[in-house]
Each structure stands twice: as C-alpha cells, then as structure tokens.
Specification:
about 600 residues, Immunoglobulin-like, TIM Barrel, 3 domains, eight-stranded parallel beta barrel, six-stranded antiparallel sheet, about 20% helix
C-alpha cells in the first residue's frame, strides 16, 4: 500500500480537523441506520485523536462500543477524470465507512491503514457526507485480544459489563491517524517494492512495480540526495547498480529518491516517488550486522501516547521524540506494542533510527497467568481464527512498511504465553509466514519466559527478552540484579546460540522523588537499577542491544499497581528528562555503535 503523496499526476486532500462526533451509548446506531442521514445531537471532536481525554465526560472516556464520526467534503470538478480513494491511517479497532449513506468499506484492526475507491459514489455537484463508525471492543479474534466480562451477581446492576484486556496500556479509541482523499489516474502505479543489497562499494536496488489498468511503459529513475539522476531503467522488475554508493546507517542516514513513471501512448500517466536507503541487514553467528558491521542497539520501547491526544498522531509530539532520541544518543526503538504511524517511520528513515516493527499481538499472556489452568493458545481463545488474522496483520504490516530502510526487524508479538504447548505451532506458523512475505529482515518475538520454558525461541532469529529483576521480583533488592540477569542471559545463549537483545528493563519512577540510599519509585533507584543491568550487558559479547523500558511515561487502565499510568519512562509524559536520562546520554555517547 502506497502512502498518499502528491505528484505530477496525483492530488491529495487532508480531511483531518474538527468532525462531528456522537457516542452510540446503546450501540444501536447500526440497527437504526444512523449512516443514512446526518448525525443528530453531535459534539465537535478532533481527528486525528483519541476521543477519551478530549472532553470532561467520564462516560465518553470509558465508553465501550461504537462511536460515530461525520463531516462533509467537496470533490473538485478537476477530479472527474481521476480515480478517487478514501484512506484512513488507523482507527481502533473496527471501522465501517459510508459515503453519502453508501457503505464503502470496513476494516478490522486498530493500527494499520485502510482505503477504498469511491470514484462512482462521490458527487461533483455538491457536498459529500463521510460517516465513520468505530468500535473499541476487543475479542479473541482481534489483536490485541480482549473479552467482555458480564457480572451476574447481586452487587452489580443487571447487564453490567466491562471490557477486560491483558496488555499494560490504555485502550485509547477513535480515529487516530489522518484521513485523506486522494486521486490516481485511470491506469496507475498501485504498489512498489524496493529491496537493497551491497556488493563491495556498490549498492544494488532491486524493485518490483505493480500497475492497475493498462500496463504501459514503466520508467525507473534513481536520484541522489540532491535529486540528481544517477541511474535509469525500464520495466516493472529489475535491479539498478549504484557505483560507490552511500549506505544508509544511523551515522549516515542517506536517502535516495526512487521515482516510478508510468507512460501510456508516450504520455506520462502516473508518477510516484519514495525515499529509499541502500543497506543490508543480516545475522551472523551472535552478531546483528548492518552493512557488514556489528550493530549495538541503544534505545527504548516506546508508546504512541501523549497528553490529551492519547494515541492521536501529532507531528509536534513525534518530532519532539525524535529530537530527544538524538539528544540522548539513542539509535533505535521498538514500536511496542503495535505498528506506529507511517509518518513516524518516514522520520526514522530521515533521522537514522533503527526500528523493530512490532505487530499488535500483546496481552496474549496475562490471561493464563491470572487464571491458572486456562490456556491462551486454545481454540476458544487464540486458536485458528486468531492465527489467520495474525498472519493477515503481518501481511498488512509488511505491505505498509516494507520499503523503509529504518525497519530492520519484524517482531510478531510481545510477551505471549510461550510456555504453552499451543504457542509452539501458533508462532511457528506466524514466523514462517512472516519470513515468506519478507525474507530480507530477521524475525523475532519478545519473550518473558525462562529459556527452558519457551517453546517459541527456536523459531526466531534474535532472542529478545524482557526482564524486571528487583522490581516485579525481589522488589527493592538491587544487589540481586547482576547475579540473576547474568545467569538468565547465559542460559538463553547456551540453549540457542543466537544473539540476545534485552528489550525491556526499568523501574517506575516519580519525577522529583529522591532518596539516598535509593528506594523504589525514586529517580535514584531507577538510575541504579539500570546501571546494574548494564553492567551485565557489558560483560556479554553476544548481547546486541539494550532497550530501556520505556521512553516516556504513559497511561494504562486503572489498577492498584499503577498510579496515573506506567511511570517507567526515562522522560515524563510531558517529555521532561528524569535523572537517568543524563546517565544514558553519557553512556550511549561512548557505547559502541
């Protein structure tokens, strides 16, 4: 799926802004066909944003079920000879879209884009009405999963229900990313796949172009950073050789422009350009290699989370985060625990930040831990239907992100119940499908079990583990960290002989809370805990990275172990640094790349 971009042949109209909004309090809107006429009794709501924190109404924040969005738009008469598409960057978690009361598409999944051609539906002689219904209900066929819990006891009113989910971030809801109208010609470039390789000092850029309609003549032009043409070729598939190429890497995020022109009858019919970096990713023995050189990952797990906006895309917050990543000398992050906005990956390409791109398969573990004897990987929960959808999500994710040089690894899940027998076949199939869709990048799964317990580690390319010694276990005992962590990591390596990546470690920390000697929740404890973890990592040559949990504080569902959310951030939710940020900045400045 190509991101909507203007070109010589394409136009884009951004429909983001203030829409009309209505909560479907009884979830009767579909039955009553609210889409058939303008919504009544609405309130204003910004798009993109999570609707939960925008108003002062607790019933809107905590609503379970459908909400409705609506706005009008005009289609310019100059678009009459074009194909017209509607595209929504993401909406959580199930969406139905109507134009002028006519259904045009529906989509399951809260973190990936969806679109439909609406050429035959829109009006050119007046207003068009766009209606979107979005449901935040989760079940065992969605990613992340969840379930409705009904209370049938005398202490709850009849019909009382809650949405239970087992991931540790708030289930923000709504239209979270921009909404676009865009045009393409009658015959158009529908997809481009670019892969790169390195041969000595030269780069190879291989490509495959898909065209809808009349194939015509496809022209490929590769340009350098200054938009000077350096290579040209014709055909829908091929390889361009770049002599003495600039290779993309964190210290040199060099981007070439890859332009595709479609000609029919010697006339330019369509044109699309994307940025590409020439780089090669591979695993050799216990090392992760980028362009033939070992990489050490320095950075964080993150969240799309900020004040008021929730998970709503905001370029101000996104850019602030990238400037903070560069300030602290990080070179990477994981999109924990779902795909981030495409615009984020564009900036990762530009800033030279390595990305572990993660599917929204999170919360597939806590269920079994909280309810002994009840398995996650079973037909009534994460069974064949979940598996099929999981593979579909990986297909959509790879289709969207395949051309980003910053994306160097796919993560198919975070902390699943990998100890269960059913997990082995489930993830064997997910990982195999992911590799078949993209054999150019390593595939991983972030584990929280012990090495001897995991039934999935044999299938991944990199062992990624999350550990919280002295926090969730042996709470407050800093002196036990190094003994436990070193024993743990050595066991993983002894069993699998694969590179090991510590993808989470950290402590909840209240900014401004100090004590010496350090105690839990103080800034001193966070710093001392992370230092002791790092002492172990520095002793083990097969460890390829450290991602502190987490970049910034974020909101979770309410519970007795969370005070206004998860406070493990190195930065506050407002993006102010805690004490540990200055330690990490100094460490990562001198730490091997």
């Amino acid at each position: 799926m190509l991101y909507p971009k203007e070109s010589e042949t394409r136009e884009v109209k951004n429909l983001s802004g203030v829409w009309r909004f209505k909560v479907d309090r009884e979830n009767t809107g579909l039955e009553e066909a609210w889409y058939s006429k303008p919504l009544e009794d609405t309130i204003p709501m910004p798009v993109p944003s999570s609707y939960n924190d925008v108003t002062q109404d607790i019933s809107i924040r905590d609503h379970i079920g459908y909400v409705w969005y609506e706005r009008e738009f005009f289609v310019p008469s100059s678009w009459k000879d074009k194909r017209i598409f509607i595209r929504i960057g993401s909406a959580s978690h199930f969406s139905i879209v109507w134009i002028n009361g006519e259904k045009v598409l529906e989509h399951k999944g809260g973190f990936l884009p969806f679109e439909a051609e609406i050429t035959q539906i829109v009006k050119f002689d007046g207003e068009n009405r766009l209606t979107v219904a979005v449901s935040n209900i989760l079940d065992w066929t969605t990613l992340p999963p969840g379930e409705m819990r009904a209370f049938n006891d005398p202490m709850h009113p009849p019909g009382y229900k809650t949405l239970e989910y087992y991931f540790d971030f708030y289930n923000y809801s709504g239209i979270h990313r921009p909404v676009y109208l865009y045009t393409v010609p009658e015959n158009y470039i529908s997809d481009i796949r670019v892969t790169t390789d390195i041969k000595g000092f030269d780069g190879e850029v291989s490509y495959r172009v898909e065209v809808k309609g009349k194939k015509g003549n496809v022209e490929i032009i590769l340009m350098d950073k200054n938009k000077r043409e350096i290579s040209k070729r014709y055909g829908e598939e091929g390889t361009l050789t770049v002599r003495n190429a600039q290779f993309w890497e964190p210290d040199n995020p060099y981007l070439y422009t890859f332009k595709v022109n479609l000609y029919n009858d010697n006339k330019l019919e369509d044109s699309y350009s994307l940025q590409t970096g020439i780089r090669k990713v591979e695993i050799k023995d216990d090392k992760f290699l980028l362009n033939g050189k070992p990489v050490y990952f320095k950075g964080f797990g993150k969240h799309e989370d900020s004040n008021i906006r929730g998970k709503g895309f905001d370029p101000v917050i996104v850019l602030k985060d990238f400037y903070l990543l560069k300030w602290i000398n990080a070179n990477s992050f994981r999109t924990s625990h779902y795909p981030y906005a495409e615009e984020v990956l564009d900036l990762a390409d530009e800033f030279g930040i390595l990305v572990i791109d993660e599917a929204p398969a999170v919360g597939m573990n806590m269920f079994s831990l909280m309810s002994p004897g009840r398995k996650v990987f079973s037909e009534e929960r994460a069974g064949e239907r979940t598996l099929e959808y999981h593979i579909q999500v990986m297909k959509e994710l790879i289709a969207r992100d395949k051309n980003h040089p910053s994306v160097v690894m796919w993560s198919v899940a975070n902390e699943p119940a990998s100890q269960e027998d059913g997990a082995e076949d489930y993830f064997r199939r997910v990982i195999a499908a992911t590799r078949s869709m993209d054999p150019t990048r390593p595939v991983t799964l972030v584990d929280c079990m012990r090495a001897e317990e995991s039934k999935t580690a044999k299938y991944v390319d990199v062992i990624c583990i999350n550990r919280y010694y002295s926090w969730y276990t042996d709470s407050g005992n800093l002196d036990i960290i190094e003994y436990q962590l070193e024993k743990d990591i050595l066991d993983w390596y002894a069993r699998y002989k694969k590179p090991v990546f510590l993808t989470e470690y950290g402590a909840d920390t209240i900014a401004g809370l100090h004590q010496d000697p350090p105690v839990m929740f103080t800034e001193e404890y966070q710093e001392e805990m992370i230092k002791r973890f790092n002492n172990v990592l520095d002793r083990l040559s097969f460890v390829i990275g450290e991602h502190v949990w987490c970049f910034a504080d974020f909101v979770t569902k309410q519970g007795i172990i969370r005070v206004m959310g998860n406070r493990k951030g190195v930065f506050t939710r407002e993006r102010y640094p805690k004490k540990v940020a200055f330690y990490l900045k100094e460490r990562w400045e001198s730490k091997k790349a």
